[in-house]
Write the structure tokens for this entry.
Amino acid sequence: MIEDRYGLPLSASSDHARSAYVQGVDSLISGVAGYRDYLAHALEIDPLFALAHIALARGLFLEAEVVAARESARQARELSVQVCERERSHVNVIALGVEGQPGKAMQAMHEHLRTWPRDAMVLAPATSVFGLYGFSGDPQHEEQLYQLLSSLAPAYGQDWWFDSVLAFAACETGRLDQAWLLIERAMSVNPRHAHAAHFRCHVMYERGETGAMLDFLEGWMPGLNKRSLIHCHLSWHLALAALSAGRLERAWEAYRAGVHPGGSWGPPLNAVTDSTSFLWRTELAGQPRHTALWRDVHAHALSSFPKVGVAYADVHTLIACVAQGDTETLNRLQQEIRQRVADGRYPPGEVVTWIADGFAAYAAGDWGRAITCLEQAWPHTVRIGGSRAQRDLIELTLVAALIQGARHEDAIAWIERREQRHPPVDVRGFH
């Protein structure tokens, strides 16, 4: 019987098709370029291979090629009527996500995993901070994901992919020692696992190991194909680490080459959010505003996300509008969000508008209003998705507003709370 790497049967026509499929899946779940070629080869050998079609759909969806992804999902659905129950269910779960039905995908995933817990491709869409849990709007989604993965750990044993995603879930819930052990074990088996390298950076960020992170990325990233899904975001981590270490020239080099629209290669979600985050952080650190760079980011954000719907993208698009002084679009998008909230079609609720109001007030020098809005938003920011490291932009802006507003005791209190996760904030950089 032909099986995948996790011991599950495959309706592949040959070992050659199976081998190409497994390589494609491993490329996809490790975030390393190559999955398209592997899966194309599998389909060249076996055009009726439903799981290869749906794996391709998942990859295309992650790269924001939604139309092509949905066409691959459609083909997979048509072909899945001829395969076993496990594969039909596998196709259905992934297709639901690609088709824009995350609630149904989440329900179908849980049902599937009760019978086939080692079906990694079915589990994968739940494991990202941009995934089924991350974008659910549930304030408890990080702990829920950790508990789900912990319950599945016995089924996976010491698997390099599963170790890495459990490590990230542990990191995001503050279980840093467990996260470090798991990520080191994953990378010892697969040293070129790009998502593991990414998750390692998050653990190091939470532990305040900026210098070590910078050294790690400088040594690890040259071997990563720029077409890899995670290249843009790892470049963001490198740029932030360099900024924090005071290596400004290196920070800007990494940003321009690997993060900024036109320099980076990656999904629009990463390009928009990471570019916005880096540029705003440089200003918090005392750097002058780079109007031309903000203009590019603003244009890319509105081109990629002309309408609201993905809260994490919406937050950063709104911040880009603030930085660019585009009040008209800022107001229009916020009104769209409020309407969606009123209609019950916006899972995070009003927190995105509170964040936008806070950043707009900060840009206007209205420290009191910025503080009020961001303090209101902060307890709910987990609902927008993204990692703790990414959401720190909101807290850092709040601390800067407190300093600017001469509320030094309150600023110190926030900084002391941050020290539970990070070394002390250097307030000299805030202007």
